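Input record, target 12 of the design panel.
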């Protein structure tokens, strides 16, 4: 999972769960330190509910969403919010497991697969990951999440 460049936009207070039809979530959208929207995805096939608290924030977020997602999507803001929530949940999982696991993604063509190895982030773990084929990104490095007392592993590319 790649780090999204969404400038000063963040999601917070995300609650995500799964039910028999898929996953659902809710949370808040912030611009800088200011809450600008709440959102709810019920996971039942309908559109995501986004309640903007400010018209300027709505038009600015829609512009960013269309820039990142493309103009052909009517619900570009919902697609972008869904991606931001996925990243939020993934980073939360990496933070929780950082002492025991190292997460990484391998991209082959248009497909990207995420894996975990049962070893904390270290030179040995990075060496094992780099034996994979394809374009590799290590979640710890993407999101600056390391076990206590461990710095980023520096290597020749």
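The sequence produced for target 12 reads:
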């Amino acid at each position: 999972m790649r780090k999204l460049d969404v400038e000063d936009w963040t999601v917070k207070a995300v609650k995500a769960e799964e039910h028999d039809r898929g996953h659902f979530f809710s949370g808040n959208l912030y611009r800088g330190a200011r809450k600008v929207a709440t959102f709810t995805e019920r996971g039942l096939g309908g559109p995501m509910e986004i309640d903007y608290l400010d018209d300027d924030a709505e038009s600015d977020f829609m512009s960013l969403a269309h820039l990142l997602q493309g103009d052909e999507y009517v619900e570009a803001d919902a697609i972008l919010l869904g991606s931001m929530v996925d990243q939020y949940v993934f980073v939360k999982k990496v933070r929780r497991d950082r002492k025991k696991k190292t997460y990484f993604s391998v991209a082959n063509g248009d497909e990207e697969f995420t894996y975990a190895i049962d070893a904390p982030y270290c030179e040995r773990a990075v060496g094992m990951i780099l034996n994979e084929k394809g374009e590799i990104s290590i979640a710890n490095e993407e999101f600056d999440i390391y076990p206590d007392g461990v710095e980023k592993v520096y290597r020749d590319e």
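The chain has four helices and seven strands.
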